[in-house]
Amino acid sequence: MKTTTPCTKTAIPELLSEFWIPHLVACEDLFKHLEYVDQSLKDVRVKALKQNLQDFDDLLFSQVPDGWRLKEYRRRTIITLAGKITYLRRICTEPSGICHAYLDEVLGIRTRRQLAPDAFLWIAETAANLSFRKTAKAFYERTGAKISHWLVMSVVREEGAPILAELYDELTGKAAGTPSGRLRISQEALHVEFDGIHVPLQKPTHEPIKPRWEYERDRQRHSFELKSAVAYAGKDDKRRRAGVVHLALDEQPLYFWPLLAARIAQGYDPEDAYTLHASSDLAGWCKNHDLDKGFPQAEIIHYADPYHVNREVRRAFGGNTRSASHIISLVYARKTKRLIAEICRVIAHAKKGKERSRYVKLLDYLQANIEMIKRGIRNNMGTMEGTNAHVYAARMKVWGGAWSRPGGQAMALIRSRLASGKPLIAPKPDNVLLSDGQIRRRQRFEESLLRQGWFVKETEGHGYEPPRGSIVLTTHMDPDLYGLLYYP
After folding, report:
1. Neighbours of 422 (CB within 10 A)
2. Sign of CA dihedral 398, 147, 99, 90
3. CA distance from start to end of the chain
4. Where would you tag: which of 141, 258, 304, 398 has the fewest CB atoms within 10 A of its CB?
5. What's the pLDDT tens digit per position in 257-306?
6. Parallel, antiparallel or unpaired: strands 189-200 and 223-232
C-alpha cells in the first residue's frame, strides 16, 4: 500500500485555494463559484474515500490467514453522506470454500445494504421530522444520491427494532439481576405521566372525506392507540421539566408497564426512588397500572390529570361556564362530599333527556375516580397532552397521513428517543457471525479432513514438508488471534 506523509492543516487550504482560484477568475461570479466549490468538494471526498478503501483492502490482503486464496475482484457500491462510492475489493475463500469480503467484514459494511451508517442515521433522524418523500428529496439535495421513499420507510422500521430490543435487554437484565454498568441518576422522587394517543391507521383503500361525527364513530376501527408516558425529576423555576424520559409503544398494558419501568431504569436508579408521583386521565389501563412491580419499594401517589377533569366538567355543563367553574373549584379544593352533593342537585333540577344524561355521566366519572380526586390535582403536572401534541401528533397526525402498526411504533420509538436527548442506534454489521449454512459447510469440511487422516508432520527444518493441516476456526476477529486446528 502506498504511504505518504500527511499534509498539515495549513497545507490543505492552500492547495484547495490554488485549485479553485482559476475558476473564480474565469467566472467572476460568487454564486457560481460557490456551487463549483461545493460540487468539487463532493467529488474530492468521493474519490479520496474510494482510494482509501482500495488501499486498505491491499493492506488487509497481506494479512489474511494462512490457507486463504484470492477468488476474484468484485465491485461494491455504498451510499454515504459524501455521495455514492463504488470501489473494488477482493473476495477470498478459506480452505472450506466459504467466501469472505474481508474489507467489508473488518469495516462492518453490511451485506446487501447500500446505506452506510452515517447515511442510515441521517435518514432516520430526518424522517422523524419530515415525510418519507421529503426526506428522500432532502437526501438527494445533500448527497446527490437518489433514494426512494420506500427505502426511507424501511430505515425507520429497521431503526425501531434495536431501540425496542434495548428495552427488552434492560428488562431481562434487571429480571436476572445483572448489573447494567451504566451511570444512572439517583432521584428519590420521580414524576410519571401517561396517556394514550390515537394515530390514524392505514386502510387498504382510500375513503372520501367524512363529516366529523362519522370520523369519531369509526375512530376505533381506523386508528390505533399508542400508549405514551414521560418521566422526569421535577420542574425548575421556569416550569421546565428536568431529566425527561419519553416512551411510546403499541403494546398491551401487560407489556407496556414493564417496558416503561425498564426505560426509566435506563436513566434513573429504580432502587433510589422512594416516591412516584403519577398522573393520568384515569382511563382503564392508566388507572390499573403496574408501576409497583418496576418500583416495588416506592410509594406511588396517583393524581388526576387536571386537563381531563376540566374537560369532562365543561362537556357536561356546555355553555354554562359559571357553574362549570364552580364545580372545577370544588374539584381543586378536594371538597368531595360537597362536589357530589352539587352534582346531585344539578341532576335533580335538570331536564330529562340529553342534558340530564350528561350530568349523570359526569357524576359516574367523578364517583369512579373519587379516590384520585381526594389526593388532589397537582398544578405542576398535567403536561402529558402537550407532550403528545409536540412529540408524537406533530409528526404522526398530519392531515392525510396514516400508519401501519409496526411503522407507527417504530416512528414513536425514534421520536421519543430523540426527545429524550439520546442518540439513535447505528445498525450492527450482519456479517459478524457465520450463517447456519456456512457453519454446516465448515463442519462437513472438517469431518472430511478427519476421515482423510490429516496430520501435521514434525520436521527438523529440512526436506520435503506436506501442506499444513490447519483450519481457520473463525474469521471475524483480529488476524493475530486466529486459532489453528490440528488433526493428529
Report:
1. 15
2. negative
3. 39
4. 141
5. 999 999 998 889 888 888 888 888 877 888 888 888 888 888 888 887 77
6. antiparallel
| Residues in CB range of 211: below 8 A, 6 or more apart | none
User: Maximum distance among all alpha carbons in the chain?
Assistant: 115
Residue 287's closest CA among 250, 331, 253?
Answer: 253
Higher-confidence residue of 456 and 345: namely: 345
pLDDT band of residue 467 (cuts 50, 70, 90) is: very low
Task: Kindly write down the DSSP assignment for every residue of 256-305, as one continuous string.
Answer: HHHHHHHHHHHHB-GGG--EEEEEE---HHHHT--HHHHSTTSEEEEEE-
pLDDT band at 363 (very low <50, low <70, confident <90, very high): confident
Q: For residue 460, is pLDDT > 90? A: no
Q: pLDDT digits over 307-317, tens only?
A: 778 888 888 88
- More reliable by pLDDT, 271 or 207: 271
3-state secondary structure of 363: helix
The closest of 114, 97, 198, 118 to 434, measured between CA atoms, is: 97
Task: Sort residue 413 into left (φ over 0), alpha (ψ -120 to 50) or beta.
Answer: alpha
pLDDT of residue 99: 84
Q: Which of 351, 327, 353, 349 is nearest to 340 (CA)?
A: 327
The torsion of the CA quartet 445, 448, 452, 453, rounded to 10 degrees, works out to: 70
How far apart CA 303 and CA 360 sit, in angstroms, is 23
Q: How much of the chain, in percent, has pLDDT values that exceed 90?
A: 22
Per-residue confidence (pLDDT) for residue 486, from 0 to 100: 30
pLDDT of residue 387 exceeding 80: yes
Pair 202, 408: CB distance under 8 Å: no
The SS3 assignment for 145 reads coil
Question: Of 422, 419, 429, nearest to 394 (Cα)?
Answer: 419
2 pLDDT more than 70: no
Secondary structure of 235-266 in the HEC alphabet? ECCCCCEECCEEEEECCCHHHHHHHHHHHHHH
**Contacts of 409 by beta carbon, 8 Å cutoff, 6+ apart:** 160, 164, 226, 248, 249, 250
Provide the residue type at 266 as one letter: Q
- Which of 141-155, 185-199, 217-231, 429-443 shows the lowest per-residue confidence on average (mean pLDDT)? 429-443
Question: Which residue's C-alpha cell is 429480571?
Answer: 175
The CA distance from 226 to 326, in Å, is: 34
* Residue 189 burial class via C-beta count within 10 angstroms: exposed 0-12, middle 13-18, buried 19 and up: middle
Angle (CA) 373-376-379 rounded to 5° is: 125
Task: Please determine, for residue 68, whether its predicted confidence score (pLDDT) is greater than 90.
Answer: no
